[in-house]
Amino acid sequence: MANIDHQTDPHPRTRRRTSDGSARRVAAAATVGTGLEYYDFFLYGTAAALVFGDLFFPAVSSTTATLASFATFAVGFGARPLGALVFGHVGDRLGRKVTLLVTLLMMGAATFLIGLLPTYESIGLWAPAMLVLLRFLQGIGLGGEAAAAQLISVEHAPPGRRGFYGSWPNMASPIGSATSTGLVLLINLVLTKEQFLSWGWRIPFLLSLAVVAVGLFIRLRVAESPVFRQLKESRSHAAFPLVELIRTHPRALLLATGMWFGASIGFYLNAVYILTFATKSAGVGLTTMLVVLVIASVLSIGFPPAAGALSDRFGRRAVLIGCCLVSMVVAVPYFPLVGTGSPVVILTVLVVFNAGLLGVAGVQPALFGELFGARVRLSGVSVSYTAATLLGGGLAPFVATALVAATAGRTWAVSAYLVAALVMSTVVAWFAEETRGTDLMAGKAGASKAGASKAGGSGATASL
Predict the structure, then answer these.
(1) Distance of CA 109 to the CA centre of its chain
(2) Is residue 30 part of a domain?
(3) CA distances for 216 relative to 35, 133, 206, 252, angstroms
(4) Is position 235 within any domain?
(5) Residues 117-133: pLDDT tens digits?
(6) Cα torsion at 236, 237, 241, 243 (round to 10°)?
(7) Is residue 41 a part of any domain in this protein?
(8) What total number of domains does the chain contain?
(9) Nearest to residue 153, comparing CAs of 85, 100, 230, 213?
(10) Residue 118 is part of which domain span?
(11) What tens digit of pLDDT does each residue of 43-80 get?
(12) For position 366, which CATH number holds?
């Protein structure tokens, strides 16, 4: 087969370079746009940890205010299944690009309006009610965006490079975290505490207007997925993608949800809850902790593509299981090490923990994309990814705060909760099939073992 391909295509290396170049452009555009959306999402988490308790829930104790603030953070995750259902349908019927544009507008508008919200002192209970509503809209947007960005990158990639290029949008997570946390840090350094609480916290939210403009410019230039174009040309769309998904891919839904569950909990504990724990329980200064979080995020940007590339070579399951095991080992001493209050120790444990968690995130786009058929792929990835994030990451800061309060400030229960979730994901991955080399138009895992071998080589002969 290889000889035939080389005879019919006199320039296979040129074609490979062109394919890689197109994949890079699409993946970069998806990453930048997703980074802007994660900026919006993590900005809310940082504000929830620092100011929302005081501004929107001042009539209760500090611990209750923190719980209430993190509960509003979890509302965004509660909305993500709705976004996954709606935009999964839109993406499977109208295209991945449409989904990317609409969700960006929704996220940006909600974030900008949060920056304009009056506080509890001004309008009473209407303030937290409006905060919850806008957080809900944020969640709907992100529920549809994440999977669409991942899939448009996976479906544009050469078969032997899907893990690598598909992982790029998940670099957006540390990029968005570093940008939002860094901006809050800068404002916090320039303003007094009173100024920051009064009006300074609004600045990063209002800047989301510029974020949306940049994101729209970038995403309007992205080409539609070749897999979706082929579906459109052949009129092979599913009439009701969700119904077909549940009927034809129930096992894939459960596998994907289970494999992402543990990493999702660890990820949001690392990105959101740890700021509250370090500053309120471990005695770390706010400025110091913000600096540590920014540095940790920057140092972690390369983990998703590294894991994605490894999965192209060694298989999705092996790399995902290895990353879960790394996260599990770090989870045991995680809180005691952060509790030392040493910036160097905290930075080290955050980066090593990120290596495992973001490694899982690097494998996830290609693995999930290969689990589902082309007609229902966006719905399948959106629903499973979002379900795991809702049940895991969305509740993680709230659960962690409640567990620490219930155990008189001890963190062993949170570590046990995290380890148990990672063990579950590891077991699920162990029983999942290998998907590397799957024909994306067929969408049946392991459908092309020969294709997997060739994909690892030239990437020129395997199907989309």
Answers:
(1) 20
(2) yes
(3) 13, 24, 17, 33
(4) yes
(5) 998 888 888 888 898 89
(6) -50
(7) yes
(8) 1
(9) 100
(10) 18-455
(11) 887 787 778 877 888 777 777 777 787 777 778 777 88
(12) 1.20.1250.20
